[in-house]
Every structure is written in C-alpha cells, then in structure tokens.
Amino acid sequence: MISDHRFIANFEKYRYLLVQLIKRDIQVKYRNSMLGIFWSFLEPLLTMIMFTIIFSYIFKRDIPNFPVYYLIGRIAFSLFQSGTMGAMKSIIGNSAILRSVYVPKYLFALATVGSSFVTFLLSLIILVAVMIVTNVHFTIYVIFASLPVIVLLLMTLGVGLILATVTVFFRDIEHLYGVFVMLLMYGSAVFYPASIIPEKWQFLLAINPFYAIISCMRTVLMNGTLYNTGELLYATVFAIVSLVVGMALFYKYQNKFLLHL
Amino acid sequence: MGDIVIKVEDVGMEYNLNKEKVDNLKEFVIKFLKRELKFTKFWAIRHVSMEVERGDKVGIIGLNGAGKSTLLKVISGVIKPTEGDVSIKGSIVPLLELGSGFDPEYSGRENIFLKGSLLGYSREYLESKYDEIVEFSELEEFIDVKLKNYSTGMSSRLAFSIATAVNPQIMILDEVLSVGDAKFREKSLERMKTLLDQDVSVLFVSHTLQQVRDLCNKAIWLENGRVMMQGTVDEVCDSYERSVLLKEKIYVKKSDPKKNDVKVPVDKDIILTFNEPIKMGSNWVELLSANRVSVPLEKFVDGNKLLIKHPELQPGMRYNLHLHTGCYEDMEGNKVNTYSTGFTTEVKHE
C-alpha cells in the first residue's frame, strides 16, 4: 500500500520529465529534416497514395474506399510499431542517465509510447481529412473508435514494457523483434483485404489481437455501425494481460538493469 | 540536531562477476542447458550501516575498490542494494557525472529544462531559477546555441550551474567540484563553499585526506567493502593514515597541501611545478581514471618539476591525479620527509 502512494508521489514529481522526454523523442525523430513534424502527416499520406495505386489499379482489388481502409490499419500499426520498438530500446539508450542519477526507469518506456501516441493523434488529422474527401458518412459511432484506440495504447505499453525488460538481458531481441513486427504487419491485413486469406488460414486473423483492433476501428469509421464486441473484448483481455505481465516483469527486474547496461 | 536524514542499515551490494558476459540468447540457452551458468559472486560492500544527521558533512575514505562509489550509488538510489535498507529524508542531489543527461542537439536553454527535469524539478521551479542559472554560467550569449557547438568548458559550466542552482537538503559529492577556466573555477569553489556552509548534509568522497579534514566533521572508512571505522573526522583520518602508511612501510610527515599545490600544467608533456623540490626515490603519480583504477605514469623528476607522460592523458580534459612522494626508512634508520597529495588538473596544449 505504501509503495502505491510512493508511486503516485514519484509520478507527480517526475511529470515534467515525462513531458520533456516525450518532446525530446518527437524532436529526435524529425531532427534536421526540413519539414519536421509535417512528416507525421506526409508519410502516411504518401504511402496511402502508393498502396492505393498498387492495390486499386495494378492488382484491381476491390476494397471499398481503399485509402481509408489502408490509413486506419497503417496509423494503428505505426503506433504499435514505434511505441513498442522505442520502449524496447528506452532503457539501453538511456543507460548514461540511469547510471548517474535516480529516475524512475519506467518513465523512459512510457515516454516513447507517449511520443508515438502524439504522432498517432497528429496523423488522425490526415485520416479525418481523407475520410471527408472520400465522402465517408460520419455517424455517432465514430465516438466508439476511441475504445479500440485505448486498448491499442495499453497493448503497446504492455508489450513495450516486456520488451524493454527482456532486451536489457538479451540484446538479440532487438533484431528478432524487427522481424516479428514485419510478420505482424503482413499478418494483420493492413494493406490487403482480409478476404484474400484462404479459408483454412483465416483463424490466424481471428487470433490476432492487433487485427481485432484495426477491424473494430474500420467497422465504426467506415461502415458506421458498432463493432463486434466479442472482438474488442478479446483484444482488451490481451492488452490487459500484456500490461500486467509487462509491469510485473519490469518491476521485478528493474533493480538489475544497471548491472547489465 | 539529532535529526537523521540518511539511515543506512546493514546494506550489502552483490555483483555477479561472470567471466564472459552472457547477453545473448543463444549463449544463455546453451549455458543454461549445460548448467554452466555459474557466477562468481562478489560483495562490493557488505554490512554497512551508517547514519547522517542534518548538517553533517561526512567524508568517505578508503583505497581504490573499497566500495566508496558503490556506497554513494546506493545512497543516491541509482542502484538498489542486494540486502539492507536505505532511508532518506529530504531531497537529494547527486553531483556526480555532471554532464550526463545533456542532449547535444538541444540548445543550452533546452538543456537546462531537460537536465532540471531529470533531477526531478518542475517546470515552474526551473523557470524561476532559469535566469540565475544562465547568469552564473556566463553563457547569456550562447544560450540558444546547440550544445554540440559548446566547448568542453562551456558545457561543464552549464552543468555545474544547473546542478548547484538548487538548495538540496542532501548533497553527494565525488571530489570537490571545480570546472572551467581559472576565473570560473574560483567562482564555482565559492559557490560550493556557500552550499556547504548551509544546513545541508553532505556525503563526500575524496582521495585527498586534507580536503576531507577541511570540509567534513565526520568520516567513514571503508576497506574491502566493510566499514573499518566511523566517527569524527580527525579520529578516522588519523587511523586511516596510520594504517595505509604502515602497510606501505612509509613514514610520512603530515602534508601541507598549500605548499604542495600544483601551479600550472603547461606542455604537451605535462609538467607539474611544485613549490618545493620533489625527493627522488620512491615517488609516484597515479592517474585516477573514471573507474578509479590507478594507472602508473611514466615520470621524470627534476628539482621541483615533475614531468609525466601517459597515453591516456588527453589535452583539454581534467584528471584526478594523486602524487605520492615517499621514502622508505633509509639505511641509518632516518625517517625522511615524504608527503601524499591529490589534485585535479587540466591537461593543456601550449
């Protein structure tokens, strides 16, 4: 109980540090590029155009409103990818600081997830703009899109904390995870219709919690109807489990980090 | 008085000294399966207990590898001890590795806020201290320049100004800080003195016993990770001195640090000029590198000049050097004038 209180007091004390770290993370990403933060709009927009050309014209796949379909998957995937990969490197990358002054270590992981979320929020502007341009009918269900986003955020943090902890002890994870993330992108129907996957492999999508999240978002944003709550529930359970495991692992091993940095 | 701000109870810190560091999965799995994951355990410190009262200045003395740095790290919360408890009352500012946490791509201004937030200060507090920090660092003109364009001296001035702009209740020092050029060094020493004069509690590690005697009222002597002795500064320092000298079979006249002050290191080869002739014989200089391993230096003595050469010495950097000049008892049994002094010096190109 006492540690709970200390945790909150500590968080209060270092709140400004969290803001600083998030700011630094975003600045590092766009450092020395002329367009700076505008890349968080431009990049998804450009890849959207590219994939639209490839899939709508070259492969003649009929996905209704492919640009929006792709963008939803893409920005959700970016949040997960940059958040988890950033968190994975957060402890190793800040070892000089951790060695010289006491700072709650989870802040570094939290900050990278936070900065990925800020980028995500910015790219939502592009999503809304493209939705307006392509005449998507906005319904009241748009509000419900916030639930899968929250679930995605929790999942990113959870997986990020697990990776941050494990990577301190086994640096191989960094390379392994890069491959895994690519696999996840190809296995989550980010840029192709889910229907092209053969019947006998469809279960792979069904057990993929990340696909569940983007599928929920697509349903509310594109069809204007409520998603299958079972799908969301599955992703929520997965996110909470990963968060609990991540926090427990991190908490248990954080005192040993310094001996391995 | 009687108000305890730091309480260290039976603290021990254990390190695994595995010969090869296992940090990849393949090795770990193989070694795990072969049951080869044996670690040599090593206690850097053990059974250390101490109490620091408000206003106490405690010097920590001991030879290299005695566990002084580990103790400081444990107290400042950077590492968690394997066993035992540390409780701290009040805010603690470690003045160790001043420049860490700076971002070279940030301007001086941004770095003040970044570094300040790392020390746990709020934005409002840093804004209220901002002018004072900039003024003290004398970097008004350069405050919007990126830190990567700063000279070493400039960034250490900024670091010092940030670290000392606050009024901590507990301060942790590894050697007395003084940075920058001669003028700024004077100013920084003055600030250190005013900080030390306040009601602040200080933990202080130094290789210079005289500094410990000057600054501290209490001392703790560590050896091989155990507390050998703690008490008033003179008691502890006297015993320590006796023990060290006994071990090395050197008879020593008490050193007078002012007399032995180093004037200016000048050349590419470093020449240290002393106010009195250096005795030939068994004198030696140690370079205390960051991890405090002493490295023997090639040396050449001429009168009161000492020429030292070492591949690790780089111009423009500051080093902790430790000069011992000792003479063993001579043939007739005469005890010869010897001294031991530590100093920090900057290596310059001329």
Q: Given the C-alpha coordinates, what overall shape of chain A results?
A: globular
Gross morphology of chain B: globular
Strand residue content of chain A: under 5%
Biggest interface, which chains? A-B, 28 and 31 residues
Total number of beta strands of chain A: 0
In the CATH classification, which architecture of the domain at 4-91 and 205-247 in chain B applies? 3-Layer(aba) Sandwich
Summarize the amount of helix of chain A as a percent range.
over 70%
- Beta-strand share of residues of chain B: 25-35%
Q: Specify the CATH homologous superfamily of the domain at 4-91 and 205-247 in chain B.
A: P-loop containing nucleotide triphosphate hydrolases
Task: Report the top-level CATH class of the domain at 4-91 and 205-247 in chain B.
Answer: Alpha Beta
Number of strands of chain B: 16
Notable characteristics:
heterodimer; A: about 260 residues; mainly alpha; about 75% helix; B: about 350 residues; alpha/beta; Rossmann fold; Immunoglobulin-like; six-stranded mixed sheet; 8 helices; globular
Structure description:
- The complex is a heterodimer of chains A (261) and B (350).
- In chain A, 77% of the residues lie in helices and 0% in strands.
- By secondary structure, chain A is mostly helical.
- Chain A has one domain (2-260).
- Chain A is globular and about 55 Å long.
- In chain B, strand 13 and strand 14 form a beta hairpin.
- By secondary structure, chain B is α/β, with parallel strands linked by helices.
- Chain B has helices at 25-33, 68-76, 108-118, 123-137, 152-164, 182-197, 209-215, 233-248, and strands at residues 4-16, 41-53, 57-61, 83-88, 92-95, 170-174, 201-205, 218-223, 226-232, 270-273, 284-288, 294-296, 298-302, 305-309, 318-325, 339-346.
- Chain B is built from 8 helices and 16 strands.
- Mean pLDDT of chain B is 72; it is low at 247-269, 279-298 and 325-339.
- In chain B, strands 5-6-7-3-8-9 form a 6-stranded mixed β-sheet, with helices on both faces. Chain B has a 4-stranded antiparallel β-sheet with strand order 12-11-15-16, with no helix packed on it. A 3-stranded antiparallel β-sheet of chain B has the order 2-1-4, covered by helices on one side.
- In chain B, helix 3 (108-118) packs across helix 4 (123-137), helix 3 (108-118) packs across helix 5 (152-164) and helix 4 (123-137) crosses helix 5 (152-164).
